[in-house]
Predict the 3D structure of the following.
Amino acid sequence: METTKNRIVINSTCKIFSSAKVSKLAPSDTTAEAEIQISGREDGSLNHDDARTVAVEESIDSVMDRIQTITLDQFCEDEGIEKVGFIKCDVEGCVITVFSGGEELLRFCHPTILL
């Protein structure tokens, strides 16, 4: 996961993202620990862009990893975030799962959402 983490850190240092914070948490509808499957590419590298929370099929080219999930509501509470005006969410088919964990945030902040 280092490659993905490095890309996020580099992107978060851009001036337009000066208030961004990198976190090792995955947004979800629950705060828990989850297992993800990360598939391999033909060149032997891992394809973090295609990680899945449910193992689709065992493959010699894939690895399993454990991640910490958190709801958007819990994340905002833990970080002391009271107002959210914009959310960029690119979670490959898990949008409902992510926003199910942010009901309070959506109800009170009415943020602009980019999917």
User: Anything to note?
Assistant: The mean pLDDT is 79. The radius of gyration is 15 Å. Residues 2-12 form the longest helix (11 residues).
